Amino acid sequence: MEQLYRKLDAVYDEMVEIRRYLHQYPELSFKEEKTAAYIAEYHTKLGHEVRTNVGGNGVLAYLKGEKPGPTVALRADFDALPIQEQTDVPFKSANDGVMHACGHDGHTATLLGLAKVLNGMKSDIEGTIVFLHQHAEELPPGGAVSMIEDGCLDDVDVIFGTHLQAQMPLGEIGYRTGALQAAPDRFDIKIQGEGGHGAYPQDTKDSIVIGGQLISNLQQIVSRRIDPLDLAVVSVCNFEAKNPYNVIADTAELTGTVRTFKEETRSFIEKEIERIVQGTCQMSGAGYEYTYMRGYPTLVNHKEETEFVAEIAKGVPGIESVNETPQIMGGEDFSYYLQHVKGTFFFTGAKNPEWEKTYPHHHPKFDIDERALLHAAKVLGKASLQYMKEHANSSFNVVG
Known about the structure:
The protein is α/β, with parallel strands linked by helices. The protein contains nine helices and 16 strands. It has two domains: 2-180 and 298-390, Aminopeptidase (3-Layer(aba) Sandwich), CATH 3.40.630.10; 183-293, Alpha-Beta Plaits, CATH 3.30.70.
């Protein structure tokens, strides 16, 4: 492990350089062709077996150790968001309206730097490491499903992944056994009223008023229909009915999100929203259209692998604390991998203690403390080597 740490320290500057390059040239979900080519070229130069166009723009790279053992997959996503960057860093996005505002540039740099180091340690590797570079995490249906269908988990025994957390202190690792992140769903509602002159509301079925009533009624789902001990969110995030100042809107459209951990709660809310939409619209004689789209499933970490990572992280240089993290309502399609193989997904603190203000993920001024890349690489690297060492004599699969 000391060799691993020293070698990672030596490539830290390169990891930062990679992260800044990717940050400057971000690409949206399902459009990451240049980023995928960059990743594939990096692994090819290292001599790894590389698969491209996996389930779309996904990239797989295989590092086979000189000793037999299990197959460990390490995942990093690499898509960006449709956000106009507002930072003043010298490597800010050169692509108008596109930004790495969630840390995926850091995830990719972490995995590439770790791949370079582990490539130089083949004689110590007891098994195979799959570097799983995933496209389109930010946009459902996501890249994980199609990559799995295209064989990214074939013969994989365990998978580890991490997310840099800008609002978690640098030097902290956050873990949780069981359900960690919620299932993120989307709903779309169109209210069909009858528009007319603003001076004669009695001759209309005002879709804006109906929409306002609907928003209020929907808030009663969580507050009055869900057990207070059961975590759930129903948020209306867009309400649009554009018209001239003196015209009552004929139609109004609402879009929002539902976040749940339990499948039964998810199904209940899906039906409950339509019941409330139907009742609210019928009360005013309006029609409606309702669509509910399920996103990623709840991310559920496996107990043994989660406790394993939490324990080995305590001895990693730079890691000052390892804490059980609360559940969060954000979604993550790493959840699909965990439905197929054992593994765990954890958080790596990336909050710079000297910054006056830290902006949340998906904010146009989002940034990370780049030292977190090194912390993430060391934990993932140690987890890989230690897992292979402990399971070298167990039954395992071999890629290839």
